[in-house]
Design brief:
It is built from ten helices and twelve strands. It has two domains: about 210 residues, P-loop containing nucleotide triphosphate hydrolases (Rossmann fold), CATH 3.40.50; about 50 residues, no CATH class. It has a six-stranded mixed sheet, sandwiched between helices. It has a three-stranded antiparallel sheet with strand order 2-1-4, covered by helices on one side. The chain is of the alpha/beta class. It binds adenosine-5'-triphosphate. The site of adenosine-5'-triphosphate (ATP) has 10 residues, from helix 1. Its main location: membrane.
Length: about 280
């Protein structure tokens, strides 16, 4: 897999305050990568440096083959950027805004197809200022992908989405990554979203990447114990263990065959995350 984002030893200071203290990241083409972390961990700062909006204090950063501090117009055209909030063009209709922004790109997506993909067909002619919060957010995402970016940055994209819109959005991101090979870097506070959507997640704590990996690797890394449940003498039994296969094997031997009601539950990303933050705090 070719690397789209490569970061080594990234440091950022605001005045005397060091916000990033040596961040390393590698993101491959077509990957959906999530940056998680508590408020103030440095997620937006990291993304802004990768987008070329902010000058770093130290470290090596390469995004789509270029240093973002020296990104050309052609380089910028390969990025899709969805900020936490846009305050623009309130009197434009949703469709006109998309069509207008699309004119800046060589091969823009069709505005009507985009609106349909984001469930906004009924709002096509509506003024941007009259959209609901969730509709506005979906339009933001449409604006981010109208130019068929190679790399899409999404800063907390699903804030304000209802469950249906969230599900549709996840399907769209998965499709864009799978079909078009688009790479997606998103920040979220929704741990279930990271678990559902991300191929890999990095957890930023105090300006450092505490853990990086697939949801399963994250769970392993923080070693929250799995729970093994089974039925015995008509009662549910539960055992917490770091080696559920060992427990299951012992149970299988003890029962001399299949274990009634056997269930092994790995810790969710949320449990792992909270234990990590608790440990690091
Ligand atoms: N322009 C700035 N000048 C000074 N300090 C800043 C500036 N921007 C951000 N900070 C500080 O840097 C730290 C990291 O901020 P950042 O916005 O990157 O965090 P975040 O992880 O995105 O947080 P959130 O989840 O709340 O959006 C915070 O303590 C913030 O107050």
């Amino acid at each position: 897999m070719s690397t789209v984002v490569n970061v080594r030893g990234l440091r950022m200071k605001y005045g005397a305050t060091e916000v990033l203290r040596g961040v390393d990241l590698d993101i491959g083409r077509g990957e959906i990568f999530t940056l998680l972390g508590p408020n103030g961990a440095g997620k937006t700062t990291t993304i802004e440096i990768l987008e070329g909006f902010r000058k770093r204090s130290a470290g090596e950063v390469n995004v789509l083959g270029a240093d973002p501090e020296r990104g050309t117009k052609a380089w910028q055209a390969k990025l899709g950027i969805v900020l936490q909030s846009w305050r623009d063009h309130p009197r434009w209709s949703a469709r006109d805004l998309l069509a207008h922004l699309g004119e800046f790109y060589d091969d823009p997506r069709d505005p009507d197809e985009l609106l349909a993909a984001l469930g906004l067909t009924a709002q096509a002619a509506q003024q941007v200022s009259r959209l609901s919060g969730g509709q506005r957010r979906r339009l933001d995402v449409a604006l981010g992908i109208v130019g068929r970016p190679e790399l899409l940055f999404l800063d907390e994209p699903t804030t304000g989405f209802d469950p249906e819109a969230r599900r549709e959005f996840h399907l769209l991101v998965e499709k864009l990554a799978a079909d078009d090979g688009m790479t997606v870097l998103l920040t979220t506070h929704d741990l279930a979203e990271a678990e559902k959507l991300a191929h890999r997640t990095a957890i930023l704590v105090n300006g450092e990447i505490a853990v990086c990996g697939t949801p399963a690797e994250l769970a392993d890394a923080v070693q929250t114990q799995s729970r093994v449940r089974w039925l015995e003498d008509g009662q549910e039994r539960v055992q917490a263990t770091s080696d559920p296969s060992q427990v299951a094997w012992e149970l299988h031997r003890r029962f001399d065959g299949p274990v009634p009601g056997l269930e092994i539950r790995r810790p969710s990303l949320e449990e792992s995350y909270l234990s990590l933050i608790g440990r690091a705090a």
